[in-house]
Specification:
single chain; Jelly Rolls; 33 strands
């Protein structure tokens, strides 16, 4: 069974009926395999008849548990301490040690159960490596909570898996989480097994609160075979019903605690409003009958539940001893930064997200920064030279140390742009100065390819086609391959100096074919952004979606490549600019869906009218003569002493590059000859050396 809880940051949620977006998913499973419904009914009928010997204390069952925290480095990346707090709450609730057990109303005090079930974080992973039972996984799927987000499941017969996410999928938008009965995940359903919850419902500290801290207790009840107290549906407060367990009275279910002694369904018989399997949010008990049902399910082979607590498995998972040790392993370094792209001379904040164990010592190493090393947890670093920068972090505690180097962690833009004014890039010749970003490091990434652009030219392709996703054998295979598609990829353009350009617009050609059989399933999008500050922040200019995106329509399960110019479209967007826009970049963002296929981008054009200015005097000692000059003549460019190499670019007023000449650094004056075999008109000579540049007007007659 699956639970959905209304989400609210205030106690107003107490007055809001709980909602669930998961009943349809359960019904889908039953529709695909009607035997699952029959299996559950048979299992429940047997479970409610199961009796434990009266007067005999039940031995405590220990279940290894692992938390998979999916995140994008936001608040959803909860701390280990928040997970430890959740473990404390679970072990209190399932062993009748919760402080609020004293608040149980008299009618249920005698049947409030010590379930004798304990949960321990694993200290060995499936490969036998040291772990603290908490892994942090960077993934956009944190915003798509569903079976598809159950990444990196550890063997469900050895570990109880809990996934922590940021928000639920669209079909479960009002839900906090869910779990399946053991009978619903047998056989090929192994992929679905486990519990998924929004991070605000894990523990009582950090991003959570005491008010939401019993959600996982409830979900584990489902995981161990318990229905809601009103029956097998998610409609609390609607119709009186029964869960089939003798000591839980018939009830309509409750979404608040206004009537703890409610007897609406059977006058004179108080309903168990405080039960963990209700929606009341004042829950504080299981009944003895519910405890018996859970233990019966733990004794069955369904979905491997009967192996979880064996001594052999506790040795394998490292849960023989009841110890939460923050230094159980050597820490594993992980970090991110507040900025990936910055301007020259700007400061970057690095933030530690190391996992697996608590860190005692940090050692950071930086390339070309204002400091070579640092030993603080979250250092600030300033970069004064352009280019890609590597960053290394070593973390250490008493159990050992580990080191990680992030290649190309930060890109520092020079204080001049790659191109001055308008520019057309067809990707057929010369350097493009474009950057592909693949945050999840999956198979899909932007790359330049040949022979498939407009008229068989070069272009950029995002390879979204996964051949393994074609015709999966089972629902679980489909989920596995679908999740690989739900990613975002980025393609960042060259930089442009548009401070002296008017009437600016951007155009590009794109081609895309979808695997979606109907238009409503085309959920993928292509967006274009602009940054005016070297990539620090981005503003969206345009989003292309649906049939507008799918230029080639439905292409089936083929590895799509455009076969004609008719499968291409051109997009154009106006870009407002000011004289301050000396270093503009554009960024493509493709958000994939389970039906994604390959995307192609060609002929990226920055259009506009470049103003004509004489030398700005930034780079002294550059003289050009003769000027004006006759077409076909030689232009002499005299350059004074150079401490850095220099590039001379000849461009027309539309920003189109005509020629590039490289000049080596020298101790004395040099003269460079530039052939001016061009049409009559005005041209610009752009002289760039180190971090300085100047622009010179040339008139050809």
């Amino acid at each position: 069974m699956m639970l959905g809880l209304s989400i609210s940051s205030t106690l107003v949620a107490q007055e809001t009926p709980f909602k669930c977006g998961s009943s349809s998913q359960m019904e889908k499973l039953y529709k695909n395999d009607p035997q699952l419904r029959l299996d559950q009914e048979a299992l429940m009928n047997a479970a409610v008849e199961y009796k434990y010997e009266d007067g005999k204390k039940r031995a405590v069952i220990v279940i290894p548990i692992v938390f998979h925290i999916l995140h994008e480095y936001g608040g959803e990346n909860i701390t280990d301490e928040q997970v430890y707090d959740q473990i404390r709450i679970l072990n209190e609730d399932f062993n009748k040690k919760n402080a609020d057990i004293s608040a149980v109303v008299p009618q249920f005090k005698d049947i409030a159960a010590d379930c004798a079930i304990e949960f321990r974080l694993a200290t060995k992973d499936p490969l036998g490596n040291c772990t603290n039972g908490i892994e942090h996984i960077y993934s956009p799927l944190t915003n798509y909570g569903d079976d598809i987000a159950k990444l990196n499941q550890w063997q469900r017969s050895k570990y109880m898996n809990v996934w922590v996410i940021n928000r639920m999928a669209p079909s479960h938008q009002s839900a906090a989480g869910y779990a399946y009965y053991p009978s619903g995940v047998g056989g090929n359903g192994y992929f679905r097994d486990g519990i998924i919850l929004i991070h605000q419902y894990i523990g009582s500290i950090g991003t959570a609160s005491p008010y939401t801290s019993r959600a996982l207790t409830h979900e584990i009840g489902h995981y161990l075979g318990l229905p809601h107290v009103w029956g097998n549906n998610n409609d609390a407060g609607q119709v009186c019903g029964d869960d089939g367990i003798q000591d839980t009275p018939v009830t309509k279910g409750h979404t608040n605690c206004n009537k703890v002694l409610d007897d609406f369904c059977s006058p004179g018989t108080v309903e168990n409003v405080q039960n963990y399997m209700d929606y009341s949010y004042c829950s504080n008990m299981f009944t003895k009958g519910q405890s018996n049902v859970m233990h019966y399910n733990l004794e069955q082979p369904n979905s491997g539940r009967n192996n979880l607590y064996t001594d052999e498995n506790r040795i394998i998972t490292g849960t023989m001893y009841d110890v939460i040790d923050p230094f159980v392993c050597a820490p594993v370094p992980e970090f991110t930064s507040n900025l990936k792209f910055v301007c020259l001379g700007e400061t970057v904040q690095f933030k530690d997200y190391s996992t697996t164990s608590k860190v005692e010592k940090y050692l950071w190493s930086f390339t070309d920064a204002n400091k070579a090393t640092d030993t603080v947890k979250n250092p600030l670093v300033t970069y004064n030279t352009p280019g890609w920068k590597d960053v290394t972090l070593t973390v250490k505690n008493k159990k050992g140390s580990n080191t990680y180097t992030m290649k190309n962690a930060v890109y520092v833009s020079p204080n001049y742009a790659d191109f001055n004014g308008p520019k057309s890039q067809s990707f057929d010749n010369g350097p493009d100065f474009w950057t592909a970003i693949n945050p999840t490091e999956n198979f899909a990434r932007f790359e330049k390819v040949s022979g498939v652009g407009i008229s068989k030219s070069n272009c950029f392709r995002l390879n979204n086609f996964n051949p393994n996703a074609v015709n999966p054998k089972t629902i679980d295979d489909q989920l596995y391959y679908d999740r690989l598609q739900l990613t975002k990829d980025f393609l960042i353009t060259s930089s442009y100096d548009l401070g002296n350009t008017s009437n600016v617009s951007v155009s590009f050609d794109y081609s895309y074919g979808t695997r979606a059989t109907v238009d409503t399933l085309i959920e993928e999008t292509l967006s274009l952004y602009v940054s005016r500050n070297c990539g620090k922040t981005w503003t969206k200019l345009k989003t292309i979606a649906g049939t507008e995106l799918s230029t080639a329509g439905y292409v089936g399960n083929s590895n799509f490549a455009p076969t004609s110019n008719a499968q291409w479209k051109t997009a154009t967007v106006t870009v407002p600019v000011t004289s301050a826009d000396k270093n503009i970049r554009f960024r493509f963002e493709f958000a994939a869906s389970p039906y994604a296929n390959n995307l192609y981008i060609d002929n990226f054009n920055v259009n506009g009218l470049l103003g004509i200015t004489d030398a700005d005097g930034v780079l002294p000692g550059v003289e050009i003569a003769p000027n004006p000059i006759q077409s076909g003549s030689i232009l002499n460019v005299k350059v004074a002493e150079l401490t850095d190499d220099m590039t001379l670019q000849l461009v027309d007023v539309n920003g189109a590059l005509i020629s590039t000449t490289f000049v080596k650094a020298s101790n004395g004056t040099q003269t460079i000859e530039l052939p001016m075999n061009v049409a009559k008109g005005c041209y610009l000579i752009q002289a760039v050396s180190g971090n300085t540049k100047s622009t010179h007007r040339v008139v050809v007659f």
